Structure formats: structure tokens, C-alpha cells
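Re: [help] complex structure
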Amino acid sequence: MTTMNQKIRESAGDRVFMYGIYIILTLVLLAVIYPLIYILSSSISSPSAVTSGKVWLWPVDISFKGFKTLFNTPQIMTGYGNSLFYTAMGTFISVALTVMIAYPLSRKTFFGRSPIMMIITFTMIFSGGLIPTYMVVKSLHLIDTRWALLIPNAIWVWQIIIARSFFQSSIPEELIEASEIDGCSDLRFMRSVVIPLSKPILAVLVLMYAVGQWNAYFDALIYLKSANLFPLQLVLRSIIIQNNSTGIMDAMKQVERQQLSELLKYALIVVATLPVLMIYPFVQRYFVQGMLVGSVKG
Amino acid sequence: MNVEIAVDQPAKMPAKRTKRSLSGMAARSFKKHWQLYIIVTPPLLYFFIFKYYPMLNAVLAFKDYNVIKGIWGSPWVGMRNFKLFFNNPIFWDLIKNTVYLSGYLLLAGFPIPILLALMLNEVRGNKFKRLVQLVTFAPYFISTVVMVSIIMLFLAPRLGFVNVLLNHLGLDSINFLGEPGMFRSIYVWSDIWQTAGYSAVIYLAALAGIDPTLYEAAKVDGASRFQKIWNVDLPGLLPTIVIVLILNVGNIMAIGFEKVYLLQNPLNLVNSNIISTYVYSIGLLNANYSFATAVGLFNSVINLVLLVLVNSLAKRFSNNSLW
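Output below.
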């Protein structure tokens, strides 16, 4: 009898506990998603609804004026084009370089792999600093060129670590031995065995580098001077954070201009973020994989 | 978390014989894998040029940089730049701002992903769990520039969402970004909003790896859900928690430049000027290269010392460490 009572009481306590968890998680969910919906709604509302604080959740007086203005602004379209270029080109360079070092380091017969690994990982915990790095980039005459965004931060050590541990765990030693007996060269083996077997890790590398490159602004801030080379993030900073939208709409009346400039900010955020957030649900598992591969010691 | 450096020190072996066999091994490896050595060269060059050469350039900190003479031709000044920095009244402000900001971030931002993971782990319905995970992970993909733009739009003095809300409630508007006292909270809580879901993933994976027989044993013993979390989940998470904590504490002085710089304005500079933003403004905007290099080097050395220190502490008091 007593044990039964105990059981019922405990499960009631557990039920309250569970309700608490569900309520908290729902609140967390709303707190995260609300600002995103608010921005999306604002971006497709009318300029006057945005500036008079009428938008709370859903769009008010749906209009696409913000987006239309964006697409007619050369500064923004140049930034968009530049960002696409930096992302495509930068990702290609980064992934290629990462595989080129991660694969040899995964081979047991590669002489010197421990010291090389040590040389690489040390750069994770110590760096020469901002100015000394800037001086190197400057002495290579990369300042104010597109290369400045593609080369100086091309390789992330973390990516080498996860790619290497993937190669180590999923390219069977027997395959390597068999290929060596058949007289297959290392490069041929990489091309026809390693790369086809490593699609999951290549997806992780491509996605992480691509998002990193699309979202980056720091290198552009310190290395670029010409506005026609600026990536979208830097254009965004100038328009939203520094509030320089005058160049976009000289010809309009003061009030109209002010309203539109508010709306433009929301539209810009959407335009800059949507490409990434739209593919994200489909590729989330690769990111999770990337985090977890790296956290398994090996 | 895998900063494991395999140390097979050749020096420890008996000298003569080792030398021969090592060079023999190297020669054989080179001959057999010459293609691998060729492809590894460009990435290695990258590390030497963009990571190690700057470390050499850091001698700038001990020189008085002169554009015409270049880094190596400029005169040595010993510790002058460091002395200048330590005696500058701004020194303690920078240290204080840096430590306070990352300390606050650590205190508030470290436990939340753990709590989130523990709660998500209790949820039975797979759909709800996946929805919460999907949504809380998403802000991680928002760039720093967009994140700061969102903060500025929401907290804008006149038209910002928060102030419009305050006005509706009959309260006065607050110029959030102009209040130095608000800066740290804005930084920290927006960071938590952005990264808590991402950081929870690693704990969720650790929770999924806990031995199921432990839960069965807890069930047999009549443990409540809370007791189960306390006695099974938390001990199971401990190794992961320690590793993440080491990384966070070791990086306390390395708090990122990007977001702080964008949130900075003349009004909140009292609390928002940290070492990395100071290096940027002194070095690149004022072109005071030597002094900025000294400040940056000081910061890098502190980071390194902190990381090594925390790691050895963790090694002593638990069995978890980075290397």
C-alpha cells in the first residue's frame, strides 16, 4: 500500500516537472523565433507601418518596396555579387587546401606527421597578432585586392582536425595496402578512392567554410579600401550600423526617405540572411556531424 | 575538443642508432609518398607565411617602427612599448573591460546550453524536440554584422521595437546603446540568444552516449526525473563540461573583436573598449604599429599562459584535459 502511494506521488511530481520543462522550452522557442518573424514581417510591410510601430507579428499593408529599392541600388547589388564570388572561390580554395594537408596527416606512413600536426595546432592557441599579420599581407601586396579575403584566413585548423579524423576512421588500411600492391599512386588513390568515400566530410567542410565566408566582415574591414570590392556584410554595416543610406535615395522627400531607410534595413537583413537560413534545415545534420567528429578524441 | 598532440619525441631514444633509422624511415617515406609531400607543401607554406611569419614580425613590439627602415631595420627599444602600455591609465580599464565582459559571458552563457540540453533530453515527443533544436540552432548562422544590426533596430531610441513596447506600457524610452551600464548585458544576452542552441548540441550528444543501464538502475531504485538528471545525466556530462569550461576560461582574454567593435559608440566606450578593439584603433587607425603590436603580444601571451594553466589545473583535479 505504502509503496503504491509513493509511486503515485512521485509520478505526479514528475508530471509537474515535465510540464515545467515543456513550458520553459516553449518560451525559449518563442524567444528565439519571435525576432526572426518580426524582421521578416517588417521587411514586407509598408514603410509607414514600419516607422509608426504598427508591425507586431504579421506584416501590415504588404508591400515589396524595400526589396525593390534594394535591387535597384548598385552598391548593394555589387556587394551581393562580391559576396557570392568570395564565398564560391574562398570555399573552393579552403576545402582544397584543407584536404591537401588533412589527408597526408591521416596516413600512418607519412613521415613527420606528429611534428606537422603540432606546428598546426599551436597556431590555435598562439598568434602573432593583428598588426604583424597585417604587415605580412601588406608586404605580399594583397591589401585592397580580392585575394586578401581568400588567402590569409583560408585554412581553419579545426577543419583540418575533423577532416583528418574522418580520413583516419573511414579509409580502411586494407584499401591503402591493396592499392599500393596494385601500384596505384597516392594521388590516384586520393582521386578515385578517398574523395568518393569522403562525401559526408566534404559536405561539412564546404558548408562550414561557405557560411564562414558569407558571414565574414573583419578581413574586409582591415584589408579592403575600394568600395567596389566590399562584400555584402561591409555594405550592410555601412547602411545599418553606421546609418549611411543617403546615397541610395537622394531624390526623395525627407519623410519618405526616412521611412524607406528604416524599411530598407529590415529588407537588407532578410536578403543577407535568408540564403543561409533557407538551406540550413536541410544541412543541419552536417554541421552537427562536424562538431561531433571533432570532439571524438583520436 | 581534439587538440590532442601526439608526442612521440624521437630525442628520447638512444642517439646514434635512432638517427640512422629515422633518416632511413624518412627517406623511404619520401620516396614512396613523394606525391603526398608535394600536395602538403602549399598548406604548410600557408601556415608558415600567415601564421608563423607574423610571430616573427611580433618583434615589432620591441622596436620603434620606421616605415622606411622596415621591421628588421627599425631600432630596438627594448621593453619601452610595454612600459608605455602598463603605465597608461587606459591599461587597467582595458583589462577590466575585457575580463568583466568575458567573465559575465562565461557566468551567464556557460550553464544555459547545459540546462537546455538537459531539458531537451527529457522531452519524449520527437517532433517538439526537433523543432526546438532546429529553431534554437538557427541564429548561429546569422552573421555578426546582421546580429548587431538586429540589436540596433530592436533597441533604437525612437523606433526600436523595445522602446515602442515600453512607450505602450507608459514607460519612457531608453537609449540602450548609449548607456555604458547596459553594454555588457546587451552583448552577453544577445550572444546567448544566438549560440545557446548551437552549444547545446555537444551536450546532447554526450547525453545520448550515457549507458542506458544506468537509467534502468535509477528506475528500479524509484528515482524521480529530477534525481535521475542529478545522479545520472550530470555525472555523465561532467567530462564534456570540464573540457568546454577549460576552453572558455582559457579564452577569457581572447574575447572576439567583431561584435564588440560593431556595438561600440562614443557613449558606451567606457565599458566597451577592450584590448582587441584598442589594438585595432591604435594600430590600424592611428598607425602606431609598434605600440599596438606590443599590446597584442601581451594579450596573446596572457591567453597562452591562461590556457596552459587551466589545462594543467583540470588535469590535476580531474582526468579531463585538452592535452
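Residues 2-43 of chain A form the longest helix (42 residues).
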